[in-house]
Amino acid sequence: MKTKPKILLIYTGGTIGMIRDSETGSLRVFDFKNLLNKIPELEQLDCHIDTISFEEPIDSSNMNPNHWVKIIDIIESHYATFDGFVILHGSDTMSYTSSALSFMLENLAKPVIFTGSQLPIGDLRTDAKENLITAVELASLHKDGKPVITEVCLYFEYKLYRANRTTKINAENFEAFASSNYPELAESGVHLKINYPYLWKSSVPSPLKVHKTFNTNIALIKLFPGISEVFLKTTLNTPRLKGVILETFGAGNCMTETWFINLLKETILKGIHIINITQCIAGKVNMGQYETSSQLKEIGVISGKDMTTESAICKLMHLLSAEISHESFKTMYETSLRGELL
Protein backbone atom coordinates (compact mmCIF):
# COMPACT_ATOMS: atom_id res chain seq x y z
CA MET A 1 0.00 0.00 0.00
CA LYS A 2 1.34 3.42 -0.96
CA THR A 3 2.29 5.59 2.01
CA LYS A 4 1.25 9.21 1.82
CA PRO A 5 4.12 11.72 2.14
CA LYS A 6 4.31 13.58 5.44
CA ILE A 7 4.75 17.35 5.13
CA LEU A 8 5.68 19.64 8.00
CA LEU A 9 4.32 23.17 7.75
CA ILE A 10 6.49 25.66 9.65
CA TYR A 11 5.04 29.09 10.38
CA THR A 12 7.60 31.77 11.23
CA GLY A 13 5.40 34.84 10.79
CA GLY A 14 4.33 37.13 7.99
CA THR A 15 1.16 38.23 6.24
CA ILE A 16 0.15 34.72 5.18
CA GLY A 17 -0.42 33.77 8.81
CA MET A 18 -2.72 36.67 9.58
CA ILE A 19 -6.50 36.84 9.57
CA ARG A 20 -8.57 39.98 9.78
CA ASP A 21 -10.85 40.44 12.77
CA SER A 22 -14.37 40.84 11.37
CA GLU A 23 -15.34 43.36 14.05
CA THR A 24 -12.25 45.57 14.36
CA GLY A 25 -10.66 45.04 10.95
CA SER A 26 -7.26 44.58 12.59
CA LEU A 27 -4.92 41.70 11.76
CA ARG A 28 -4.07 38.98 14.20
CA VAL A 29 -1.96 35.83 14.05
CA PHE A 30 -3.78 32.76 12.77
CA ASP A 31 -3.83 29.61 14.92
CA PHE A 32 -2.27 27.02 12.62
CA LYS A 33 -3.57 24.16 14.74
CA ASN A 34 -6.91 24.88 13.05
CA LEU A 35 -5.39 25.07 9.59
CA LEU A 36 -7.53 22.35 8.00
CA ASN A 37 -10.69 23.98 9.31
CA LYS A 38 -9.82 27.25 7.58
CA ILE A 39 -8.44 25.68 4.38
CA PRO A 40 -10.35 22.41 3.87
CA GLU A 41 -8.90 22.14 0.34
CA LEU A 42 -5.67 20.88 1.92
CA GLU A 43 -7.46 17.65 2.82
CA GLN A 44 -7.74 16.88 -0.90
CA LEU A 45 -3.95 16.70 -1.25
CA ASP A 46 -2.36 13.26 -1.26
CA CYS A 47 -0.29 13.85 1.87
CA HIS A 48 -0.40 14.13 5.65
CA ILE A 49 0.19 17.64 7.03
CA ASP A 50 1.47 18.54 10.48
CA THR A 51 2.08 22.10 11.64
CA ILE A 52 4.51 23.83 13.93
CA SER A 53 4.78 27.53 14.65
CA PHE A 54 7.29 29.89 16.20
CA GLU A 55 6.14 30.59 19.75
CA GLU A 56 6.31 34.26 18.87
CA PRO A 57 5.81 34.73 15.10
CA ILE A 58 7.92 37.59 13.78
CA ASP A 59 7.62 40.16 11.05
CA SER A 60 10.13 39.19 8.38
CA SER A 61 11.75 42.63 8.62
CA ASN A 62 13.07 41.47 12.00
CA MET A 63 14.48 38.23 10.58
CA ASN A 64 18.14 37.55 11.44
CA PRO A 65 20.61 34.61 11.44
CA ASN A 66 19.42 33.50 14.90
CA HIS A 67 15.97 32.92 13.42
CA TRP A 68 17.53 31.06 10.49
CA VAL A 69 19.12 28.68 12.96
CA LYS A 70 15.76 28.27 14.72
CA ILE A 71 14.18 27.16 11.43
CA ILE A 72 17.09 24.82 10.76
CA ASP A 73 16.75 23.28 14.23
CA ILE A 74 13.11 22.46 13.47
CA ILE A 75 14.01 20.89 10.11
CA GLU A 76 16.94 18.96 11.56
CA SER A 77 14.93 17.51 14.45
CA HIS A 78 12.08 16.43 12.12
CA TYR A 79 14.15 15.52 9.06
CA ALA A 80 13.89 11.75 9.50
CA THR A 81 10.16 11.86 10.20
CA PHE A 82 8.91 14.05 7.36
CA ASP A 83 9.21 13.84 3.58
CA GLY A 84 9.10 17.58 2.92
CA PHE A 85 8.93 20.98 4.57
CA VAL A 86 6.93 24.10 3.73
CA ILE A 87 8.02 27.29 5.47
CA LEU A 88 5.60 30.18 5.78
CA HIS A 89 7.53 33.42 5.91
CA GLY A 90 7.01 37.13 5.36
CA SER A 91 7.83 38.12 1.80
CA ASP A 92 10.10 41.09 2.56
CA THR A 93 13.14 39.01 3.55
CA MET A 94 12.07 35.65 2.18
CA SER A 95 14.81 35.63 -0.46
CA TYR A 96 17.44 36.22 2.24
CA THR A 97 16.19 33.47 4.57
CA SER A 98 15.65 30.92 1.81
CA SER A 99 19.07 31.68 0.30
CA ALA A 100 20.67 31.27 3.72
CA LEU A 101 18.97 27.92 4.28
CA SER A 102 20.21 26.66 0.92
CA PHE A 103 23.77 27.07 2.22
CA MET A 104 22.95 25.78 5.70
CA LEU A 105 21.51 22.50 4.38
CA GLU A 106 24.26 20.50 2.70
CA ASN A 107 23.33 17.21 1.00
CA LEU A 108 19.64 18.05 1.21
CA ALA A 109 17.56 15.18 -0.20
CA LYS A 110 14.06 16.50 0.54
CA PRO A 111 12.06 19.58 -0.50
CA VAL A 112 12.19 22.74 1.60
CA ILE A 113 9.75 25.21 0.06
CA PHE A 114 9.19 28.79 1.22
CA THR A 115 5.99 30.63 0.53
CA GLY A 116 3.96 33.54 1.81
CA SER A 117 1.43 36.03 0.54
CA GLN A 118 0.74 39.67 -0.16
CA LEU A 119 -2.70 39.53 1.53
CA PRO A 120 -3.77 37.79 4.77
CA ILE A 121 -5.18 34.29 4.55
CA GLY A 122 -8.71 35.41 5.47
CA ASP A 123 -9.03 38.23 2.96
CA LEU A 124 -11.51 37.78 0.12
CA ARG A 125 -8.94 38.27 -2.68
CA THR A 126 -6.03 36.67 -0.87
CA ASP A 127 -3.20 34.94 -2.69
CA ALA A 128 -2.39 32.99 0.47
CA LYS A 129 -4.52 29.92 -0.18
CA GLU A 130 -3.18 29.20 -3.66
CA ASN A 131 0.42 29.78 -2.60
CA LEU A 132 0.06 27.52 0.42
CA ILE A 133 -1.89 24.72 -1.28
CA THR A 134 0.46 24.51 -4.26
CA ALA A 135 3.59 24.75 -2.12
CA VAL A 136 2.40 21.76 -0.09
CA GLU A 137 1.50 19.87 -3.26
CA LEU A 138 4.95 20.51 -4.73
CA ALA A 139 6.62 19.42 -1.49
CA SER A 140 4.71 16.14 -1.57
CA LEU A 141 5.53 15.26 -5.21
CA HIS A 142 7.27 11.91 -5.62
CA LYS A 143 8.53 10.07 -8.68
CA ASP A 144 9.73 6.46 -8.56
CA GLY A 145 9.45 6.57 -4.79
CA LYS A 146 11.71 9.62 -4.41
CA PRO A 147 11.00 13.33 -3.90
CA VAL A 148 10.92 15.32 -7.12
CA ILE A 149 12.28 18.43 -5.37
CA THR A 150 15.51 18.07 -3.40
CA GLU A 151 16.51 21.67 -2.79
CA VAL A 152 15.44 24.87 -1.07
CA CYS A 153 12.82 26.62 -3.20
CA LEU A 154 10.48 29.58 -3.13
CA TYR A 155 6.93 29.35 -4.45
CA PHE A 156 4.92 32.46 -5.23
CA GLU A 157 2.14 33.31 -7.69
CA TYR A 158 2.13 30.12 -9.78
CA LYS A 159 5.90 29.72 -10.03
CA LEU A 160 8.47 27.65 -8.15
CA TYR A 161 11.97 29.11 -8.08
CA ARG A 162 15.37 28.03 -6.81
CA ALA A 163 15.43 30.05 -3.60
CA ASN A 164 18.96 31.40 -3.89
CA ARG A 165 18.12 32.79 -7.33
CA THR A 166 15.23 34.98 -6.20
CA THR A 167 14.70 38.65 -5.44
CA LYS A 168 11.57 40.42 -4.29
CA ILE A 169 10.72 42.89 -7.05
CA ASN A 170 7.28 44.23 -6.15
CA ALA A 171 5.67 45.34 -2.89
CA GLU A 172 2.11 45.40 -4.25
CA ASN A 173 1.60 42.88 -7.04
CA PHE A 174 0.87 39.22 -6.34
CA GLU A 175 3.78 38.43 -8.66
CA ALA A 176 6.24 39.66 -6.05
CA PHE A 177 9.37 37.64 -6.89
CA ALA A 178 11.61 37.11 -9.89
CA SER A 179 14.46 34.80 -10.80
CA SER A 180 16.07 36.72 -13.62
CA ASN A 181 19.15 34.58 -14.13
CA TYR A 182 17.66 31.11 -13.75
CA PRO A 183 14.45 29.55 -15.13
CA GLU A 184 11.56 28.65 -12.86
CA LEU A 185 11.63 25.05 -11.62
CA ALA A 186 7.88 24.55 -11.94
CA GLU A 187 4.79 26.39 -13.07
CA SER A 188 1.28 25.95 -11.76
CA GLY A 189 -1.59 26.10 -14.22
CA VAL A 190 -4.31 23.58 -14.99
CA HIS A 191 -1.50 21.08 -14.37
CA LEU A 192 1.77 21.32 -12.51
CA LYS A 193 4.53 21.64 -15.09
CA ILE A 194 7.88 20.55 -13.68
CA ASN A 195 10.99 21.73 -15.53
CA TYR A 196 13.07 18.66 -14.72
CA PRO A 197 16.29 19.76 -16.52
CA TYR A 198 16.61 22.75 -14.17
CA LEU A 199 16.10 20.91 -10.88
CA TRP A 200 19.06 20.55 -8.54
CA LYS A 201 20.53 17.08 -8.84
CA SER A 202 22.56 15.84 -5.90
CA SER A 203 25.70 13.89 -6.66
CA VAL A 204 26.49 10.86 -4.50
CA PRO A 205 23.84 10.55 -1.74
CA SER A 206 25.29 11.63 1.58
CA PRO A 207 23.83 12.27 5.05
CA LEU A 208 22.38 15.70 5.68
CA LYS A 209 24.99 18.10 6.99
CA VAL A 210 23.75 21.22 8.77
CA HIS A 211 25.69 24.48 9.09
CA LYS A 212 24.53 26.87 11.79
CA THR A 213 27.14 29.61 12.00
CA PHE A 214 27.32 32.91 10.14
CA ASN A 215 29.88 35.68 10.27
CA THR A 216 27.91 38.91 9.96
CA ASN A 217 30.94 41.22 9.95
CA ILE A 218 30.29 42.26 6.36
CA ALA A 219 29.26 45.37 4.45
CA LEU A 220 27.14 46.01 1.38
CA ILE A 221 28.24 48.96 -0.75
CA LYS A 222 26.25 50.11 -3.76
CA LEU A 223 28.29 52.30 -6.08
CA PHE A 224 26.76 55.47 -7.44
CA PRO A 225 28.12 58.41 -9.43
CA GLY A 226 29.70 60.80 -6.96
CA ILE A 227 30.37 58.29 -4.17
CA SER A 228 32.96 59.87 -1.87
CA GLU A 229 36.35 58.67 -0.72
CA VAL A 230 35.47 59.61 2.88
CA PHE A 231 32.37 57.41 2.87
CA LEU A 232 34.16 54.42 1.36
CA LYS A 233 37.19 54.77 3.61
CA THR A 234 34.98 54.94 6.70
CA THR A 235 33.00 51.87 5.66
CA LEU A 236 36.04 49.81 4.71
CA ASN A 237 37.71 50.67 8.02
CA THR A 238 34.80 49.31 10.05
CA PRO A 239 36.22 47.34 13.01
CA ARG A 240 36.27 43.53 12.55
CA LEU A 241 35.12 43.80 8.93
CA LYS A 242 35.75 40.52 7.09
CA GLY A 243 33.98 40.85 3.74
CA VAL A 244 32.36 43.35 1.40
CA ILE A 245 29.70 42.94 -1.27
CA LEU A 246 30.35 45.63 -3.88
CA GLU A 247 27.39 46.34 -6.15
CA THR A 248 28.93 47.67 -9.36
CA PHE A 249 27.58 48.97 -12.65
CA GLY A 250 26.64 46.76 -15.61
CA ALA A 251 28.92 43.78 -16.09
CA GLY A 252 30.95 44.58 -12.97
CA ASN A 253 32.27 48.00 -13.89
CA CYS A 254 33.36 50.84 -11.61
CA MET A 255 35.16 54.17 -11.59
CA THR A 256 38.90 54.00 -12.32
CA GLU A 257 40.10 56.88 -10.10
CA THR A 258 43.39 56.05 -8.42
CA TRP A 259 42.06 56.66 -4.89
CA PHE A 260 39.22 54.18 -5.43
CA ILE A 261 41.35 51.33 -6.77
CA ASN A 262 44.06 51.92 -4.13
CA LEU A 263 41.48 51.86 -1.34
CA LEU A 264 40.10 48.52 -2.52
CA LYS A 265 43.61 47.13 -2.91
CA GLU A 266 44.57 48.19 0.62
CA THR A 267 41.41 46.56 1.95
CA ILE A 268 42.14 43.26 0.21
CA LEU A 269 45.74 43.30 1.48
CA LYS A 270 44.32 43.53 5.02
CA GLY A 271 42.63 40.17 4.44
CA ILE A 272 39.14 41.51 3.75
CA HIS A 273 37.35 39.79 0.86
CA ILE A 274 35.62 42.00 -1.71
CA ILE A 275 32.90 40.47 -3.89
CA ASN A 276 31.81 42.11 -7.14
CA ILE A 277 28.15 41.72 -8.11
CA THR A 278 26.10 43.71 -10.59
CA GLN A 279 23.39 46.19 -9.66
CA CYS A 280 21.39 44.99 -12.66
CA ILE A 281 18.35 42.79 -12.14
CA ALA A 282 19.63 40.35 -14.77
CA GLY A 283 23.03 39.50 -16.22
CA LYS A 284 26.37 38.81 -14.62
CA VAL A 285 29.74 40.21 -13.67
CA ASN A 286 32.46 39.76 -16.28
CA MET A 287 35.55 41.45 -14.92
CA GLY A 288 38.03 42.33 -17.63
CA GLN A 289 35.43 42.71 -20.36
CA TYR A 290 35.83 46.48 -20.08
CA GLU A 291 38.74 48.62 -18.90
CA THR A 292 36.55 49.84 -16.04
CA SER A 293 36.64 46.38 -14.44
CA SER A 294 40.10 45.14 -15.45
CA GLN A 295 41.78 46.71 -12.44
CA LEU A 296 39.36 45.03 -10.06
CA LYS A 297 40.38 41.66 -11.45
CA GLU A 298 44.08 42.55 -11.17
CA ILE A 299 43.90 43.48 -7.47
CA GLY A 300 42.06 40.29 -6.49
CA VAL A 301 38.40 41.25 -6.30
CA ILE A 302 36.20 38.12 -6.31
CA SER A 303 33.54 37.70 -8.99
CA GLY A 304 29.99 37.14 -7.80
CA LYS A 305 29.14 36.19 -11.38
CA ASP A 306 25.33 36.09 -11.77
CA MET A 307 24.37 35.86 -8.11
CA THR A 308 21.61 37.91 -6.51
CA THR A 309 22.53 40.36 -3.77
CA GLU A 310 20.61 38.25 -1.24
CA SER A 311 22.44 35.07 -2.18
CA ALA A 312 25.83 36.84 -2.35
CA ILE A 313 25.37 38.18 1.19
CA CYS A 314 24.28 34.83 2.65
CA LYS A 315 27.05 32.92 0.90
CA LEU A 316 29.64 35.40 2.17
CA MET A 317 28.44 35.08 5.77
CA HIS A 318 28.36 31.30 5.41
CA LEU A 319 31.86 30.91 3.96
CA LEU A 320 33.41 33.41 6.37
CA SER A 321 32.30 31.18 9.22
CA ALA A 322 33.88 28.09 7.65
CA GLU A 323 37.49 27.05 8.06
CA ILE A 324 38.67 28.14 4.63
CA SER A 325 42.15 29.51 3.97
CA HIS A 326 42.38 33.02 2.56
CA GLU A 327 43.99 31.59 -0.58
CA SER A 328 41.14 29.10 -1.16
CA PHE A 329 38.31 31.54 -0.39
CA LYS A 330 38.17 33.08 -3.86
CA THR A 331 37.94 29.67 -5.56
CA MET A 332 35.27 28.50 -3.14
CA TYR A 333 33.18 31.66 -3.50
CA GLU A 334 33.28 31.56 -7.30
CA THR A 335 32.20 27.88 -7.27
CA SER A 336 28.54 26.90 -7.26
CA LEU A 337 27.63 25.24 -3.97
CA ARG A 338 23.82 24.98 -4.28
CA GLY A 339 23.14 26.18 -7.82
CA GLU A 340 23.38 29.84 -6.82
CA LEU A 341 25.57 30.76 -9.77
CA LEU A 342 26.55 29.56 -13.22
Give a quick precis of the structure.
This protein has 342 residues and is an alpha/beta fold. It is globular, with a radius of gyration of 21 Å. Helix content is 26%, strand content 21%.
Report on the structure:
The chain is an alpha/beta fold. The chain folds into 2 domains: 6-210, L-asparaginase, N-terminal domain (Rossmann fold), CATH 3.40.50.1170; 218-333, Rossmann fold, CATH 3.40.50.40. 26% of the residues lie in helices and 21% in strands. The chain is built from 9 helices and 20 strands. The protein has helices spanning 35-38, 65-78, 94-104, 128-139, 229-236, 258-269, 291-299, 309-320, 326-333, and strands spanning 6-11, 18-20, 27-29, 48-53, 84-88, 105-106, 112-115, 142-143, 146-147, 152-156, 159-162, 167-168, 177-178, 186-188, 192-194, 209-210, 218-222, 243-248, 273-278, 302-303. Strands 4-1-5-7-10-11-14-15 form an 8-stranded mixed sheet, sandwiched between helices. Strands 17-18-19-20 form a 4-stranded parallel sheet, with helices on both faces. Strands 2-3 form a two-stranded antiparallel sheet. Strand 17 (218-222), helix 5 and strand 18 (243-248) form a beta-alpha-beta unit. Helix 3 (94-104) runs parallel beside helix 8 (309-320) and helix 5 (229-236) packs parallel to helix 6. The longest helix is centred in the first third of the chain and has 14 residues, at 65-78. The chain is globular. The model has no long low-confidence stretch (mean pLDDT 93).
